[in-house]
Amino acid sequence: MRVEAAMSTPAVTVTAATPVKRAAELLAARGFTVLPVVDEELRLVGIVSEGDLVRDRFPAKARLAASGAAGAGAEPGATVGEVMTREVLTVTGRDDVHELVERMRRARVRAVPVCRDGMVTGVVTYRDLVRTVARRDERIASAVRVRLESCFTLGRFEVAVDAGAVLLSDRMDRPEDWHTARVLAEQVPGVARARVAARAESTAG
């Protein structure tokens, strides 16, 4: 499955000059966890997260210094450019979701900008991926049939889906086509894995 099948698009972006307050309002209103930061040419220059925006925004308990003056905390950044992260994990829409999940886990990030030629085309988050996993089996089966019919005879494969696992039953019993059929099925959002068998075998099972 490709990233483009799971990502949210169009991406909501900010610039380095965007006030922190405005970026926080966007995250709160949209339910996002990060916002890509772009330059004047809409090229990615960083990312700003919930953690970046709340850093130094809550003053510690005030304590009077010996002189009687209140101790001052760190001055919080006023713009996104002052608080954003510049080193960003990115993917393209054609990248494989399986590889993306592993990269996100290793990098300990919850959202990744999707780019093409340096420009942001979308964002993929764990929420997007969970939404894909939660897709109903009936919708998955229908999408798999459509995908198979783009390559094979109409109705050649019976499609059964159970908790995202797909079983394709080949009425023509031609194993030389099964690899292609399985790959096509596994490109459908929500498919955890696909298996192909002859119709008689699947009926017996």
What labels would you give this structure?
single chain; 205 residues; alpha/beta; three-stranded mixed sheet; 8 helices; 8 strands; elongated
Overview in brief:
The protein is of the alpha/beta class and 205 residues long. The chain contains eight helices and eight strands; from the N terminus they run βαββαααββααββαβα. The protein has a three-stranded mixed sheet. The protein has a three-stranded mixed sheet with strand order 6-7-8.
Structure description:
The protein is an alpha/beta fold and 205 residues long. It has 8 helices and 8 strands; from the N terminus they run βαββαααββααββαβα. Strands 1-2-3 form a 3-stranded mixed beta sheet. Strands 6-7-8 form a 3-stranded mixed beta sheet. Helix 6 (137-149) crosses helix 7. The relative contact order is 0.15.
SSE blueprint:
Blueprint: E1 14-15, H1 20-30, E2 34-38, E3 44-49, H2 50-54, H3 80-83, H4 97-107, E4 111-116, E5 119-125, H5 126-133, H6 137-149, E6 157-162, E7 165-170, H7 178-186, E8 193-198, H8 199-204
Parallel strand pairs: 1-2, 7-8
Antiparallel strand pairs: 2-3, 4-5, 6-7
Helix pairs in contact: 6-7
